Amino acid sequence: MPLRDSKIIELPRINDHRGNLTFIESGRHIPFEIKRTYYLYDVPGGASRAAHGHKALHQLMIAMSGSFDVTLDDGFEKRLFHLNRSYYGLYIPPMTWRDLDNFSSGAVCMVLASDFYDENDYFRDYHRFLKTARELHK
């Protein structure tokens, strides 16, 4: 999928003087069914995460606390997103390489995924990812 399919999705917010609430519904707010949720936290200063791509997995990435940068790459172009609001999610379609860095102190990154963990869905080698992405777009 082209990088232009990646986008920030504004999630519903219910504002209340007692605190705010945001919710996410499969197929309504995000374009896939949620089958897995995981989160990154206690990332040391200066560390990077991710550095991989997925063949078929759709994801929504949210900065639940703090902030971090996400660089997306479809094999032809790259885009940088700065996530820092818990009511914005970054939709990442399949065949997109991602790098996460610039984590603030106390940052928490939650990821909603369209499928269960499957190591065979991963690209861990950037050059192999590039070759496959470019072959798909011939």
Automatic annotation (TrEMBL):
The record ties this protein, via InterPro entries, to:
QdtA_cupin_dom (IPR008894), RmlC-like_jellyroll (IPR014710), RmlC_Cupin_sf (IPR011051)
Q: Where is the Sugar 3,4-ketoisomerase QdtA cupin domain?
A: 5-132
What's the superkingdom here? Bacteria
Query: Pfam family of this protein, just one?
Result: FdtA
Cross-referenced Gene3D superfamilies: Jelly Rolls
Looking up CDD domains in the UniProt record yields: cupin_QdtA-like
Show the SUPFAM superfamilies listed in the entry: RmlC-like cupins
What is the name of the protein in this document? WxcM-like, C-terminal
Organism source for this protein? Nitrosovibrio tenuis
